[in-house]
Amino acid sequence: MQRLVATAVALVALVAGLVIYNSLPQAQPQALVYEPARQLQPFTLQGSDGSQVTNERLQGQWTLLFTGYTFCPDICPTTMADLRQIMPSLQQHTDTPVKVWMISVDPQRDHVERIAAYTEFFGPEFFGVRAEHPQLYPFVNNLGLMYSIPDEGATDYLVNHSAAIILVNPAGHLQAIFKAEHTMGEIPTVNMQQLAADFAIIADN
């Protein structure tokens, strides 16, 4: 009899614990998360390995995408280095490969060989893509990002571009946007600790 009572009490405690757990507020990512994820428009780009890159290349992996260029003096190398640093943390939360794509927004100067050398410096998870403006601009715009096009004939110039990072899920669909933090006197960058925390929530779900 005592054993039955103990079992009943244990079951009641278990059910009560589950009810309390489910009623607690669950952790929510601070990133802008699309539910359901958004399908990307068809695109054709050139990869830093010389291959033709289409939507299919995004499938079977989590992909972090951001706009940049190899002549960028601040945001791009900072973002690349920060992503390299948190890559092991991201990979801990998924059995699916995690990759980084740098989308060059400077097709005039960023040829394939230059992008390849730039991205390979940061590790095998990093990949570069490029295209001429007629193909590049619609792709970047579809991601919800932007960049400026320099004056025709300009040779020494900066390219203004978004500092946000896009997350594409293993189905090849846009899952989330990690927005950059803007602080007076500092370059806008994404908070990598928050990105890692948000990615853990998204990947686990």
Description of the structure:
This is Protein SCO1/2. One of its GO terms (molecular function) is metal ion binding. Belongs to the SCO1/2 family. Residues 34-197 form the Thioredoxin domain. Pfam families: SCO1-SenC. Helix 2 (75-91) packs parallel to helix 5 (192-204). It is globular and about 50 Å long. The chain has five helices and eight strands, in the order αββββαβαβαββα. The protein has a single domain (28-204), classed as Glutaredoxin. The protein starts with a helix and ends with a helix. Strand 5, helix 3 and strand 6 form a beta-alpha-beta unit. It has an eight-stranded mixed sheet with strand order 1-8-7-4-5-6-2-3. With 205 residues, the chain is an alpha+beta fold. The model is unreliable at 5-25 (pLDDT under 50).
Topology:
Elements: H1 2-23, E1 32-39, E2 44-47, E3 52-54, E4 62-68, H2 75-91, E5 98-104, H3 112-120, E6 126-130, H4 133-142, E7 165-168, E8 173-178, H5 192-204
Parallel strand pairs: 4-5, 5-6
Antiparallel strand pairs: 1-8, 2-3, 2-6, 4-7, 7-8
Helix pairs in contact: 2-5
